[in-house]
Inverse folding.
């Protein structure tokens, strides 16, 4: 009784049930594989056996069941060479199943019996992942380009508010220290009767013209190493000698002023709208610094700036007025005509000069350019 119970207990155990089950058929094992599998005779490329997944992915075509008929993308010559050299050949194909495109990776390898084993793997997930990564990469590149464009646009805007060297100092240290420049020359330009023009002309067209002129003045300033400091309405202010020190600051501003006047003169000959400017130039010490807290702007202060503004106001249309200090710095390289001694607010009686031409750049007098003598100077002085 005891032996019979023991035998019954052993016979009902799970292990015995597994041992007593018949082995699965080879076709069942092949169908259980997640990939498509087939065995191919290499001489005629006929499919000897294939699992259900392979047959569903690559069914026989019009009764033709060879591998070349099922997979016409197979390059027999290339496959033969690679299998001979490396016992393996793989390639990618795409099929449209159930209304959607599916990518497959097909691999052929030599079996020990001389037949070829064909393994097919659904590659759609990997392809989707690669497409997604490519999409993310393109989005990242687009974002980077947009960021760089915004950065360049912001830099252009900042360069309208301050010189490049000042902007660089601002970036590195977060602030800009006021600096005194003993050798600098300031230029003030203003247009005659601009207020009347603003009332009489179309505002949009007037501003567009002014913007066009200021853009040209900016290019001229840059050409001669001058720094446009600011515009205020129709007035334009540029300085040379700061923040990059320049020993030829007076000559650079004189060249720029002559070129600006020449540009406006040529522009008037080609346009019905006439613009006439007044220019004042003065040299001396100035202080440059960032002003403002929330709205930064680089500005310059000092006697040279104030004197240039005074000279601009007394200048006649299309006339360039110089302070005597600037005329002295220009020496014989420019033609400077002494004008009457003027009483200038804050400066008292001041000998002023008119810049006529010079330097070979905008010369109007040809050779022999010189600083003409001051008619008001005392004999022997």
């Amino acid at each position: 009784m005891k032996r019979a119970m023991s035998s019954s207990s052993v016979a009902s155990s799970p292990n015995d049930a597994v041992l007593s089950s018949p082995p699965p058929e080879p076709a069942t094992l092949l169908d259980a594989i997640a990939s498509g599998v087939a065995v191919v005779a290499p001489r005629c490329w006929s499919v000897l056996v294939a699992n259900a997944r392979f047959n569903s992915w690559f069914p026989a075509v019009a009764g033709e069941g060879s591998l070349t008929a099922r997979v016409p993308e197979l390059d027999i010559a290339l496959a033969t060479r690679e299998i001979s050299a490396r016992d393996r050949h793989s390639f990618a194909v795409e099929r449209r199943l159930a209304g959607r495109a599916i990518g497959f990776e097909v691999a052929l390898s030599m079996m020990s019996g001389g037949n070829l084993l064909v393994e097919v793997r659904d590659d759609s997930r990997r392809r989707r992942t690669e497409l997604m990564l490519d999409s993310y990469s393109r989005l990242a590149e687009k974002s980077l380009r947009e960021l760089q464009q915004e950065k360049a646009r912001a830099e252009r805007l900042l360069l309208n508010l301050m010189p490049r060297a000042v902007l660089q100092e601002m970036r590195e240290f977060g602030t800009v220290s006021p600096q005194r420049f003993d050798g600098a020359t300031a230029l003030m330009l203003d247009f005659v009767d601009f207020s009347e023009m603003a009332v009489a002309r179309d505002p949009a067209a007037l501003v567009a013209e002014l913007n066009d002129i200021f853009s040209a003045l900016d290019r001229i300033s840059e050409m001669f190493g001058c720094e446009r400091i600011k515009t205020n309405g129709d007035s334009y202010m540029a300085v040379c000698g700061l923040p990059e020190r320049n020993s030829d600051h007076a000559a650079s501003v004189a060249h720029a002023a002559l070129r600006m006047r020449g540009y406006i003169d040529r522009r008037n000959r080609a346009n019905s709208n006439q613009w006439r400017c007044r220019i004042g130039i003065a040299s001396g010490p100035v202080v440059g610094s960032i002003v403002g807290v929330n709205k930064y702007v680089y500005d310059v202060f000092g006697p040279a700036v104030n004197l240039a503004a005074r000279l601009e106001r007394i200048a006649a249309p299309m006339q360039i007025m110089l302070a005597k200090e600037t005329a002295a710095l220009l020496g014989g390289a420019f033609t400077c005509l002494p004008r009457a001694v003027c009483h200038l607010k804050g400066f008292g009686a001041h000998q002023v000069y008119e810049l006529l031409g010079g330097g070979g750049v905008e010369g109007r007098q040809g050779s022999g350019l010189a600083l003409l003598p001051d008619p008001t100077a005392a004999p022997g002085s």
Observations:
- The mean pLDDT is 82.
- The CA atoms of residues 42 and 301 lie 92 Å apart.
